[in-house]
């Protein structure tokens, strides 16, 4: 099929900042805690009318989970299964190699929450138009607060002036005050051939090694030994920060990567999840729980582990995850 629009869903992440809800065997994009659906399922539904074809790039540990969701929604898809995580440059390269050169790919993570669908659809349509003209399009979200958990795009209209790493509190406030900084959403749209040309130019090692791995793949399953030779580099670093073909679509849809318990808290509050008068919340248990002398505390309950945290400390959960990883703990599985 020539010139089809392909929705590529990246599902490789583990969501270490949402431990103990998120585990290796059940990463956050598969947890059915968002209005009885998983983030992955919502991602499939949200884009189903925008694309002709669907691809899922997942990994050996969790591709059966995406298979369950795709089965439930009766969606036909091309399955690409990574043997080992190699970051987003390789994952996106595999999707591009699996496409026709003129196919337009819409790349989305599988674990984001998006509202205001009319704004979302308009942003995607605008991006497809720019992709047809040969641009690589990134989606910049108009920020609602000085968030330190996201990267930023400095922009002028649809021109990207620079990409910025996750800022500290002071820098984030400075970005918001300047008014031309957008959150980097990690969503992209481009022609397969354009992305591969740019990758070949700026990061030839990733291009060549990913190509070898893709060409030896069996029914979408990728080989471990050759995969380990691919440098683990993000698409931002490999292409976005270097290419002259980048455009940004400043988007006003509501967006969160639900990357921390603070963003999960905000989302659940917006959907009517109960909190007490001091802003304390329970996730994962309907047992009666009382908080005494505590404010903005989140109690996360699972069968094998509990986490009690101040909402403001939610970025530090990944440190607990790293610590458990060092101990080779079963609590991560």
Question: Can you tell me about this structure?
Answer:
There is one protein chain. The chain is α/β, with parallel strands linked by helices and 333 residues long. It has eleven helices and 14 strands. It has helices at 39-47, 63-72, 87-97, 117-132, 169-178, 192-202, 204-215, 224-227, 235-240, 261-270, 317-326, and strands at 5-10, 53-59, 78-82, 104-109, 113-115, 136-141, 152-156, 159-164, 181-191, 246-251, 254-256, 281-283, 297-301, 306-310. Strands 1, 2, 3, 4, 6, 7, 8, 9 and 10 form a nine-stranded mixed β-sheet that branches. A three-stranded mixed β-sheet has the order 12-13-14, with no helix packed on it. It has a two-stranded antiparallel sheet with strand order 5-11.
Strand content: 15-25%
Helix content percent band: 25-40%
Count of helix runs: 11
Cα gyration radius (Å): 20 Å
Low-confidence stretches: none
Q: Topology, please?
A:
Blueprint: E1 5-10, H1 39-47, E2 53-59, H2 63-72, E3 78-82, H3 87-97, E4 104-109, E5 113-115, H4 117-132, E6 136-141, E7 152-156, E8 159-164, H5 169-178, E9 181-191, H6 192-202, H7 204-215, H8 224-227, H9 235-240, E10 246-251, E11 254-256, H10 261-270, E12 281-283, E13 297-301, E14 306-310, H11 317-326
Parallel strand pairs: 1-2, 1-4, 2-3, 6-10, 12-13
Antiparallel strand pairs: 4-9, 5-11, 6-9, 7-8, 7-9, 13-14
Helix pairs in contact: 3-6, 3-7, 6-7
């Amino acid at each position: 099929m020539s010139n089809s629009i392909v929705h590529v869903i990246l599902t490789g992440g583990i969501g270490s900042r949402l431990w103990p809800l998120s585990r290796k065997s059940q990463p956050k994009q598969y947890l059915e805690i968002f209005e009885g659906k998983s983030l992955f399922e919502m991602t499939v539904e949200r884009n189903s009318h925008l694309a002709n074809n669907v691809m899922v790039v997942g990994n050996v540990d969790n591709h059966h989970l995406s298979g369950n969701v795709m089965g439930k929604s009766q969606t036909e898809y091309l399955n690409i299964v990574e043997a080992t995580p190699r970051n987003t440059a390789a994952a996106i390269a595999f999707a591009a190699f699996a496409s026709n050169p003129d196919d337009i790919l819409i790349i989305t993570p599988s674990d984001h929450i998006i509202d205001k669908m009319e704004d979302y659809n308009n942003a995607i349509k605008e991006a497809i138009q720019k992709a047809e003209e040969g641009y690589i399009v990134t989606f910049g979200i108009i920020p609602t607060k000085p968030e330190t958990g996201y990267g930023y795009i400095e922009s002028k209209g649809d021109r990207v002036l620079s990409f910025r790493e996750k800022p500290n509190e002071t820098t984030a406030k400075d970005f918001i005050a300047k008014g031309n900084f957008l959150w980097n959403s990690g969503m992209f749209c481009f022609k397969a051939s354009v992305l591969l040309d740019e990758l070949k130019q700026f990061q030839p090692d990733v291009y060549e090694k990913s190509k070898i791995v893709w060409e030896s793949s069996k029914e979408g399953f990728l080989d471990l030994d050759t995969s380990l030779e691919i440098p683990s580099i993000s698409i931002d670093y490999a292409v976005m920060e270097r290419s002259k073909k980048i455009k940004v679509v400043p988007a006003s849809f509501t967006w969160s990567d639900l990357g921390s318990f603070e963003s999960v808290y905000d989302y659940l509050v917006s959907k009517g999840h109960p909190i007490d008068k001091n802003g304390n919340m329970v996730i994962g248990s309907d047992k009666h729980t009382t908080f005494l002398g505590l404010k903005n505390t989140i109690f996360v309950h699972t069968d094998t582990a509990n986490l009690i945290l101040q909402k403001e400390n939610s970025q530090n959960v990944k440190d607990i995850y790293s610590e458990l990883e060092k101990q080779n703990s079963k609590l991560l599985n």
